[in-house]
Amino acid sequence: MKIILTTSMSGLGGTENATFRLAKLLHEHGHTVILASSDGPLVKDAAALGIAWHDIDLYRGKSAYLKGTLAYAKLLRQEKPDIIHCQMARIVPACAVAAKITSPKTKVFYHARGLDPETYPKIAKLFDKLGVYIIGNCKHEQQKLIRHGFPAHRISYTYNALPEKPVSVPEKTAGGEVVLGTLSRLSHTRAVHLAIDILKTLLDRSLPVRLAVAGIGEELDNLKAQAERLGIADKVSFLGGVRDLNAYFTEVEILLNTPILIGDHGAGVGNNILEAGLYETPVVSYDAAGIAEMVINGETGYCIPFENKEMFADAIATLAGNPEMRRKMGKALNEHVTRLCSDEEIYRTTLAAYNM
């Protein structure tokens, strides 16, 4: 099967990483995988695996969108792929129209990773008319799009592929302080500022904790200023973009996830939660989107009602004071994640979607 994965690859965010992992998985199963995207840090990694790349950027305004559509149509005319798998919504109309003109037998898929809430009914209607198929990145996202009117027989779901598994899960570094961690883009929606507020609450309770913030983004300076303002800058480490997960999870004992996702805002589970599971690290998260599909409250971590800061802090305090509970929940999350997101399961569910 010939598959063109189409997206933006400009950063190191969840979509870029999920696209790379899916490309690698499909390539390893013998499919011809072509990446059509903007340039970015993971493009070289894909090329090193033998995955062909075409520099097509549909994200730099109207003129770039038109130019990119024409380049995409030329690519389709040459390759005649079986599948176009769009990883973001904005590019779907261009890809679908180009396919109808130059490669009408090609099936076009949109991988739903979250939209602005008001966009769901519009997308459900438009993509239905374009004959597009949809793969949600969790069951919650699939059901949301069905609720907004997309045909149930043309939508499935599969979780994101896991990163490369560690040879062995590293032992946590023993120390006097329990290291909490965040692992996400530093954006307003990811709301790491809420994790810093909760850290202050825990320190005010005299709990021996510190926070390791991994990620890059526009909120970095604001987060550093917040830590300074709260007088806890010495308890917060900003690590920048982290690619060595083994080193990161050797230190971090509890992963915190505090996104601002209310109602239909947001989708999926988050690569950070899957990565925590891979490294047997329990998660304390606000309950949003599909997070509860992985963070089962009281079993694989704690899934807290949004904005209940005290309950969130209490959950961390419980885990911080109980190493055995951390180990037990971390192993439970590992078993849950590896069962639902194993290479075999992601491949099975993706191919089943392609054959809808």
Task: Offer a concise description of the structure.
42% of the residues lie in helices and 17% in strands.
How would you sum up this structure, described in words?
- It contains 13 helices and 13 strands.
- The chain has 356 residues and is α/β, with parallel strands linked by helices.
- The chain folds into 2 domains: 2-161 and 343-354, Rossmann fold (3-Layer(aba) Sandwich); 178-339, Glycogen Phosphorylase B (Rossmann fold).
- It has a 7-stranded parallel sheet with strand order 3-2-1-4-5-6-7, sandwiched between helices. A 6-stranded parallel sheet has the order 10-9-8-11-12-13, with helices on both faces.
- The mean pLDDT is 93.
Structure keywords:
Rossmann fold, six-stranded parallel β-sheet, elongated, 2 domains, seven-stranded parallel β-sheet, alpha/beta, 356 residues
* Mean pLDDT over the residues: 93
CATH topology of the largest domain: Rossmann fold
Q: Which residue ranges are poorly predicted, with pLDDT under 50 across at least 5 consecutive positions?
A: none
The N- to C-terminal Cα distance equals 15 Å
Total count of domains = 2
Number of helices in the DSSP assignment: 13
Taking all Cα atoms into account, the compactness measure Rg is 21 Å
Q: Spell the H/E element sequence.
A: EHEHEHEHEHEHEEHEHEHEHEEHHH
What kind of sheet is the major sheet? 7 strands, parallel
- CATH architecture descriptor name of the largest domain: 3-Layer(aba) Sandwich
CATH class of the largest domain: Alpha Beta
Q: Strand content of the residues, in percent? A: 15-25%
The percent range for helix content is: 40-55%
Structural class: alpha/beta
General shape = elongated
